[in-house]
Write a structure and sequence with these properties.
667 residues, DNA polymerase, domain 1, Beta Polymerase, domain 2, 5 domains, 38% helix
Amino acid sequence: MPDAGAGRPSRSTRSPRVSRPPAQERDDPRLGPPVPADIDLPDPDDPPFETRPRHSRGDAVPTLGNDQLARIFYEIGDMMELKGELPFKAGAYRRAADSIAHSPTDIVRAYREGGPPSLVGVGRAIDEKLAELADTGRMRYHERLRREVPPSLVSLLNVPGLGPRTVAELWSKLRIENLADLAAAARDGRLRKIRGISERTEQRILEGLRELEERPPERLRLGQASQIAERLAAMLDAAPDVQRTYVAGSLRRRRETIGDLDLLAESADAGSVIERFASHPVVERVTARGSYRATIRLLRGPQVDLMVMPPGRAGTYLVHFTGSAAHNVRLRELARDRGWSLSEHGFVRLDDEGRPVIVGGGGGAEPRTFETEAEVYDFLGLPFIEPELREDRGEIEAARSGRLPDLIDLESIRGDCHTHSDWSDGHVSMERMAETGRRRGYSYMVLTDHSRSLTIARGLTPERVEEQRPIIAALNERFAHEEAEGRMPKGAHPGGFRLLHGCELEITVDGRLDYPDELLARYDVVVASLHVGRKQPRKQLMERYMTALRSPHVDILAHPSGRKIGIREDLDLDWETFYRVAAETGTLLEINGSDERLDLDDRRARVARDAGCMLTIDSDAHYLGEFDNMAWGVSLARRSWIEKRDVANALPRDEFQRLVAEKPHRV
């Protein structure tokens, strides 16, 4: 924002201070505390910017903590969303807030001392706003936004049918600021004063409010949870009294969504670790605190449980806090059968009556502890069980009989079969996508831009498909030339890299494939999917999928169930028939690594494998950073008991190409 200067309106023409109606308490921790009802909003031009107190001039200026700075930037993101700004702009302020909240540096002090820290997501515009906050304790842009719209209004956007424009109008005309205000106005019939809201609309809003009350607590996607956990673990690991920090719980088991986070810190000084953790700026509130354990709620984030464990005893702690609860019950039963009690603190010998055996003169039972999880499982007569399998879905029986799967791992993946460029709805050129795949050590990557009928994704006409071919051929010629001269980039596969020409072929609403057979036959790989007509009856959906499965040209079915986690449910399919025909025709089924999809899910992927289907694990990357989705796809495959032999893109390039080339003969 430009500085206030000669063009600023005089005091007599400026907007008066605005007082808010009383704010209701809100349960959503992401919104932060409500603005007190008795606080007037400051005029951003009072006093004028040039004359207001500044630290750089030696004036007394409030020193804002990182938590206070983060709240300001979170609020800016909320208010930008309410004003209808582009989502990426609001997201930029929220990402900056995340970086600020997790920064180990006292940011205001760093700015005042002339050494601003490098923060992820903080560019020039946000840097200038941080400098203003450090020098004056205020930010004009933030104050102007707050006078236009209260950040608490963002809670209303969760109500089905309410968009930013309607929410802003509810505030400006009815002073509705939160969900309680909205419910009262709907019951009183006051919403009908807003143009476009009828009695029927009021009833739908009340129904939406009831749905919100009944909705389970919001869960994090894997990518979101992992990012938060990694930041917290890095913060703890940086302390001299922490030997190592571990992520545990459902995140370590790689469940598709995460509620609370669990961390374990190995340290001989539990008190100092708990103190540092509980007092970190990222903490919204401390809900429980003891000598070895603390539970906190993060600023605009989930609950986090931290357990501090003595050095050299991580084995039973990791087993216990990784879970699942059902898996741990089975382990405790095995321990009891052997005459031991098992808890996070270790194994304790039991007497014939099932009571702990007292040893020494201290009057207590001395636990048997282990440094590693492998030693814990060995003590129980079991081989090590990978965290992703610990759900009591047969892993104990498989371990006892020597039938645990040799799980696929990320290093086994030779290629990515589902990626997009800026020719359709991707955001990066074909060359940059290919180079990224090459530098990740892949032997091949399939470019799968959308087909023509998916216009929302800028699907390619047959003419544009033909324009892609020579570009891909030229890239592969360059790759081959560089490989022959030994000029491969760092990380490249020693056997070379090729970009395969593919498409994400739409299965149309009327059951046709989006391109003719003669065009499909010219692709290296065809990935088919279904995006529209999702609410058709099961019979029609199955007929559409059967067309793709029985096509000699369709090699892979992408994200078969079509779900988006927390947004839309699986398609209504006859899954038994679906798997049988996929196995018969040799059509590969995709595990989509996007943490919004993770489709097929862990149960369906395991059933598909057992039915004889072969799978691919893909990133569905539209941005360079989304190549990392492959890790989530591999994690899901591991939860599904998938082995390397079950995954087509764990094959070398020539074997993979031979496999897909045989599809016409199988059909």
